[in-house]
Each structure stands twice: as C-alpha cells, then as structure tokens.
Amino acid sequence: MPEAPWQRVRVGNVPPLASAFQPRLGLRAQIDRARAEHATVVLAQVFSGGGGVGKSQLAAAYARQAHTEGVDVLVWVDAAETAQIVAAYARAAQRVEAPGAGGQDLEDDARAFLDWLAGTERSWLVVLDDLTDLEGARPWWPRPPAGDNGRVLATTRRRDALVSGAGRTVVDVGTYTRHEARAYLHDRFTGTRTPHLMDDRAGDLTFALGHLPLALGHAAAYMVNEDVPCSVYLRRFTDRSARLDTLLPPGADTDGYGRHVTASLLLALDAVRQHDPTGTAAPAIRLAAHLDPAGHPQELWSTTALTDYLTHHRTPAPPTADPPDRATPEQTRTALRLLHRYGLLTWDSPAGPRAVRMHALTARAARETTPAAETPATVRALADALVDIWPASEHTASDTAAVLRANTDTLAANSGDLLWQPDGHPVLFQAGTSLLNSGLYAAAVTYWHHVAADSQRLLGEDHPDTLTARSNLALSYGQAGRTTDAITLQEQLATDSRRLLGEDHLQNLAARSNLALSYWQAGRTTDAILIEEQVAADSERLLGEDHHQNLAARGNLALSYWQAGRTTDAITLQEQVATDSQRLLGENHPNTLTARGNLATSYGQAGRTTDAILIEEQVAADRARLLGEDHPDTLTARGNLAASYRQAGRTTDAITLQEQVATDSQRLLGEDHPNTLKARGNLAASYWQVGRTTDAILIEEQVAADRARLLGEDHPNTLTARSNLAASYWQAGRTTDAITLQEQVTTDSQRLLGEDHPNTVAEVAALHAWRRALKPWWRRFG
C-alpha cells in the first residue's frame, strides 16, 4: 500500500531577517563545513558581554534556506527555558503523528518526538535558539539520526564544556567585522532612502558601537527617525552624560530583537545569579565595567581591595545580624568563571595582563544600571587594587605597566571626579610616574597637564597634590626637552612652596633643587650653582650633614661644578659624598653606587681614566649583583664603563660592551626608549672612532630620525643626534651633507638653547672649523 502524501511540517516562528541583513559569508562557510561533518552545530558567541552578535539571525537565515530547499520538518524552538523546549517538541510530535504521542503528557510527547527524529527517513532541522540552561536541556538534545537526513542547529551565550559535548561542533560567532558593520549602515540607510546619514564618521561610529549588530540596528533606526548623520550621533554617543536608553531606545528596535539594548546585554545576569551561591558575580560585573574593555590582569581579583569589596557588596546581601564571611580569591575566581561561562566577560589566561575583558557596550550598560550610591566604593576599590599590583620594577614588566596605565585612564574617565575625593588617589600619580619611567615624555606632559588642572579645579591651587602634580609636569617638560616651560613652572613652584610651606620646609628645598636642575639642563650653570650651594647649606643646617638628602644635595652641586669645568671642585665634593654615602648607607646602597659612578665620570673628565675605569668596573659588577643583569641601572653602569674604555683607547672593549648594552636595552626597554637610543648613539660614536664610518652613519641616521619622531625636532637630544650624524658625514668625506646639516643644527641650537649655551658654542665652533678647512690653504689665514 503506497505511503500517504507527506505534508511538510513547520513548528515555531522563525524570526524575520533584520533590515539590511548581512549574510556574513565567512561565518556561513564555517557553518556549512561544520554541518557537512557533524549532525549538531552550535553557534556560540565569543563576544565579551551579553548578546546581540546576530547568532539568531544567522540561524534564522539557515532555517529559511532549509525551508526553501524543501526540508520536511522544521522546528524552531525559543530555548531559553527547558520548559519551552519540551512544549515545542510536544507540539511537533502531534504534527508529525509520532508513535506514542498521546497528547496527555508534554514530556512523554517530547520524548516520542525525539524517538521519531532518530528513526525517520524524512529530512528535518531542529533549531534551539538561545540555549541558556544547558544542564536542564541535556536530555532534550536530538539524538544523531540513522542517516544524514537530520540536523540540529543551536545558539547559546554559554561558553563551557557542555556546549561542545556529545559530539557537537562549535562555531564561534563574534561581532561584525569592520567591513560588515559599515556595509550594514550603508544598506540600512540606502534601504530607507537616507544615504546622506552615511558621512565620513561612519567607521568611527561602528567602532564606538563595538561592531555589535544589536547596537548598530538600534542606532541606525534612531538616526533614521531623527534624521541624524553618523557624525552627530557619534558626538552624542560619546558624551558620557548621555545614557544608552536614550541613545539606543526601545522604540528603535525595528529589527525585532525583542528587548532594549541594556536588558539584552545583561540578560544572562539573571541566570548567573541563580548559579552564584556566594553572591559575588553581580558586584564583580560592576567592578569589571569600570576598567579597560581591552582587558586587565587577573591578579587584580586576588587583591585585598577587591575581595573586601566583594565581601561587603554581595548580591543578595547577607543578613545584617552576622558579619559576612570574607570573600576569598577562590570564590572570586569562581565568580569570574561563571560570568565567562554566560558570556558576560571573557577570562583568557594566556592573554597575560589583558586576561579579563568585557565589551565596551556591556560595560556601559552595567555602569548605567549600577546604583549611584555603589559607585564611589567601586571606584575606590579598583584604584586601590591597581596600586597594589603595580610592578615595583617596571623594566621587567613593561607590558603589565602599560595595561595598568590604560586601566587607570579608563577608570578615571568612567568615574568622573571620584578619584579626587577627598584627595587625589595615589593611582593617578602612579600612572604618571610610570609614563616617565617608560620614557614616554610627550605622553607624560599631556597626562600631568590634565592631572594638575583637575587637582587645581577640585582641590585648589595651593593643595599639596596640586603642587606635586605641577612639579611632575615641570619634570616632564624637562625630559621632553621643553626646558623653558620647565623653568617657568619651576620658578612658580619654588615661589609657591616658599609662600605656603616656609623657607625651611623640605618640599621647598626639593622645588629649588628641581629648578636648579632645569637651569643646569638649559646651560645656565652659574644660576644652578647659586641655588644648589644654598640648598646644600640649608639641607645640612636642617637635616644634619649625614642625612641622605644632604648627600643628594651635595651630589647635585658637584655635577654642576663638573659641567662648569670646575673639575677639581667637583672631584673634591664627589669624593666626600662617595665616602659619606658608603659610611652612612653602606657600600651596596643604590645612592652609594650612584655617588661612585658620578665620581668616576669626573675622574674621566680630569684625564684620570684609569681611576675612572677601576670604579666603573666595580660599580657595573655591583649593579649586576644587586639589581640583576637586566636592570636599567646596570645597563647605564655598563654604558658608562664602555665610554671610559673608549676614552682610554680600549675601543675594541668599548664596542663589545656597547653592542651588548644596545641589544639588551632594545630587548628590555623597547627600541623607542630614550636609553635605547642613547646606547645606539654611543655605539655609533665608537664605530666612528675606529673608522667604521659607514656603520656609524647607518645607526646615527636612524637614531636622529627616531629622536625627531619620538621627542620632536626641537628636543636637545634630537639636536645632539643630528650633530653626531653631521660629524660622521664629515669624517666620511660627505662634506656638503655635513655642512648643510651642521648649519641647521647650529641655527636650531641658537634658537632653542641660546647663543651662550655650551652646546651652541660647540656647534658654532665645529661649523666654522669645517668651513675653514674647505678653503684653500693660502686663504685660511686671510
């Protein structure tokens, strides 16, 4: 008897495709390859927060194609709850007339449908959309069919082992690519006859929205409704006072996502709370939301600052009658793993200092749904934690320091003025100091300018934090080569410190000492010496001659004597400082090693090269023994020793050591660090001395270009690099190149440093000598 005609069955409502739906051909190809090898494919998000990446849209497109191609049975299940799966299967059992489906018990009918799927020869597709309760859904996964006629496609925000179990294959779904995001806006605006909304800031807007399909859909609808182009909308979106419910309102849900953006991004938080007996996951979201979306170190979550916060901000709060048990680092780790499992953040240990990440939109949604009363404690805990894990030796953890600076910037931007209550938080000053330690002088100028302005605005111009910020700004000016700006600010600081703190306050001594240092840097050595002699006398009077700050004051004075050519005075004072440092601080103290190194430099200037080398060899060995081979101070000591070798005519020894210092500096500090550029410049000088002029020029051309790029055309170190390059051109016989460059260096030195600066005098002398050398001999004396 022939089989009765089969009527195609469709259960559940497949969502309509969004306006300007993007086929995402790369992802679709991955789905097709997975489908060819596995009966069950899971679309799992790799987006660090909430939903809205378009998993359901991809599944809907796949289901519609299957329907078009004639699949016999298509079942679409809204699978957020296990009960919905059971109910959908029971309806499908009735539609396909599955044996054993009596219509009396939903679970019996659902099981009958699963049995029917496993045995039928009909083609079928079951889509389980937004699987959340993977544990409860475990019995309701369709079994692999006897042939290749059946397929299961699931979507989920979950990211744990259950997703990929039982032979299922996972296709990761993230946000749009940059091209797909721009294409979506273009197609959306073209389809609504509003192409003028697609202006030159469209790419910036898609980036600000994190290329998230959900957010792009809401934003595009808003722009169409309000006739607002991308540039205007971007300005509104980046205004921190605006809120997502205004910028991405529920009324803009024209693509049928079914919920507001904020609710969608944080939807999984309800499921998290159900599986979080410690109550720490929800407050952990608030903490992570204030940090850099690009990531922060997982070590942050083991600090006392964050475990204390989680202890007192559990959700729900423990009974007030008993003090809560302290949250442990293990509980915190469990909470983070739970948040990762539900896609609210990403915890990727191999990512190092950026191990924990959260999408910027999810973070913004979490901040905007945090009660205002909770925010100050949240910000304070994070700031304390950042300080706690800041590496003491940044040269061995430069990547971590850079990440911590980025997180400090993000925390400050997200917290308004809370980091200035009641005073400036130490993390603000730590981040600025880190920029200086890393040689990022231009960035340090910008940073300290903002910190000083904020401190003055919020605490007043006479507050100690304001004075400290302005002092660091002046230091940054000096390091960036803006000596005039440094001096102007330090003269003001010296006056303010004297007025506010008194003549004999130690901070006033520091302000005057810093001013003298800038005078020294500007070539105003006489002015520097006048201040430093007074500072040294005041320091001895106030602290006693054996105090370490008095030793530092006398050491600074000796350096100025040295620059002024008063080598005998410098050596006399430095010998005394070195002896006193060793007696008072010990021979292994860093200040003692510095004092001995400075003494060796003066010995070298006085022609006592053998004495200089004896000291510098011991200092270099002591630095390596006490600080390690890779410490920046060790590299500096070895560089100084190499310079003395060169001065003593031991050029081969100098070059061997300088090549090692240059290599180690680049490895440890980075190729753009000022100390690396200095090491390469010193190596070039030694190459020049032994006649390896071509090698010297290759290095010096790169160093001059790098200094100009990193420090600016007008930085004194840039002038020095170009001066050295001109000398190498001259030695190589490239006289035209040498004189052309030297003329420029001389002009710039006169303009920037002044006619009387020692460097300017030297540049003028070199230029005159070269010009004179090019004259015929009978005209040189005319």
Describe the structure.
- With 782 residues, this protein is mostly helical.
- The protein has 35 helices and eight strands.
- The chain has a six-stranded parallel β-sheet with strand order 1-3-4-5-2-6, sandwiched between helices. A two-stranded antiparallel sheet has the order 7-8.
- A hairpin with an 8-residue loop joins strand 7 and strand 8 (356-357).
- The longest helix has 19 residues, at 441-459.
- It is elongated and about 110 Å long.
Quick overview:
The chain is mainly alpha-helical and 782 residues long. The model is unreliable at 1-5 (pLDDT under 50).
Output the keywords:
782 residues, mainly alpha, two-stranded antiparallel ribbon, 35 helices, 8 strands, elongated
Weakly predicted, low-confidence segments: 1-5
Mean pLDDT score: 88
Question: What would you call the structural class?
Answer: mainly alpha
Helicity level: 55-70%
Separation, N- and C-terminal Cα atoms: 127 Å
Q: Count the DSSP helices.
A: 35
- Describe the global form: elongated
**Main sheet: strand order:** 1-3-4-5-2-6
- Counted beta strands: 8
How can the largest sheet be summarized? 6 strands, parallel
Strand content: under 5%
Gyration radius (Cα, Å) is 35 Å
> What is the multimeric organization of the chains shown?
single chain
